[in-house]
Known about the structure:
The chain is of the alpha+beta class. It is built from 5 helices and 8 strands. The chain folds into 2 domains: 73 residues, Beta-grasp domain (Ubiquitin-like (UB roll)); 82 residues, no CATH class.
Amino acid sequence: MNGPEITLEVAPELRLFVPHDRRQGPTALTTDGASTLGHVIESLGVPLTEAGALLADGAPVARSHIPGPDEHIEVRAVDRPQEQLRDVLGRFTPSLAPWTRCTACNGTLAEADKDTVSDQLEHGTQQAYDVFAQCTGCARVYWRGAHHGHLETIVADAVREFGGTAA
Ligand SMILES: [Zn+2]
């Protein structure tokens, strides 16, 4: 790409999506001069569902905005992810059964003994986690990550409000 060079600043909440060298603050980015801002953001790895307000030189712009030379682009995070989740759940009222289905084959998960699954785990995983489940279909092993408690709280709240079957 050899189009205009812009400066891009991604909200701290979104920096896990972008390449490591763009996580510290504003960085220079050369665009192709034709792509929309939405496309530029996506191509960096930020899902558009996670991107909130977009600013060009401090002024709000749409995703269809085509960044021009020397523009300073800011990508904010969506304001309240939990509100967004509640909104989505309320609209589609999916059947909620968290942590009961295999994401690979949709098989049923069963609780697994740590000793039984330990040969399938990285050593660090084995050290850090205690609660495991294994797919009865394809034998894929699941474990509860460090952030699971927070996700579980969000899902549990949603289940309470919208119905469904809690794990
Ligand atoms: Zn499976």
